[in-house]
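Lecture notes, unit on binding sites. The following record was shown on slide 14. It pairs a sequence with NAP.
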Amino acid sequence: MSKKLDGKVAIVTGASKGIGAAIAKALATEGASVVVNFASSREGADRVVSEITENKGRAVAIQADVSDQGQIQRLLTESIAEFGKLDILVNNAGIYLPSALGDITADHFHRQFNLNVLGLILVTQESLKHFPSEGGVIINTSSVVSTLSPPGTAVYNATKSAVDNLTRTFAKELAGRDIRVNSVNPGLIATEGTHAVGFVQDGVEIPAHMGRVGQPEQIATGVVFLASPDSEWMTGQTLYLTGAAF
Ligand code: NAP
């Protein structure tokens, strides 16, 4: 039986855990060959690759810090060497560091903007050298905070507002190449990252989100939709996946 993404090749940045890992597995389940990018968690990335290959999918783990231009170039070179082409780019790697206005430092600013915004731009730029003439798909992992603007994460919120704007702008710039650019904007999702910063704690329910915290797989479903021909007439859009009206 044919699958939605048979024959496609995808790169998912930050796919060793959390939302990125779920996205990598969901794309592979639909037939895509997947590059599972990670920065330092080789064990997590290898686990994602094993789950995919045990399920008869194709995947490879490639280490690269996607806030570093040289490492981004190597990521693309190694990806093309492995799978021969690129059809789907998921710019998912991102960090969130809480800080009230009075405590914001230049380092706090640059760590988040260098990865969430500059890294996304540089990976996209490098990927354009490899998308085929028939086009491709770019999906950015933004966040509900881009418009919800919760207090205490001002810099992170600003990075995601920037991601939404880049999504719309790049969609216009790349329309002529048949490259669609969209974002998923999750609400709070239970991941290793949100547990580590204390946004999600075991046993704590978030009533605004249908009485529960979201799961990475609920975001991955949206990414598969945006990667597939099901969304062929959709570009420059932000797909809010929040389990709540706001
Ligand atoms: P997570 O659990 O902290 O996982 C982050 C992933 O990004 C890991 O695979 C990590 O790899 C990778 N990563 C970090 N720095 C990197 C770098 N410099 N280069 C390459 N990879 C890097 O995060 P998450 O909660 O799944 O969030 C993923 C994305 O969703 C982020 O863009 C985040 O802003 C967005 N988001 C999350 C939520 C939420 O509630 N979880 C809500 C809205 C949006 P290593 O482990 O190897 O470092």
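Take-home: The radius of gyration is 17 Å.
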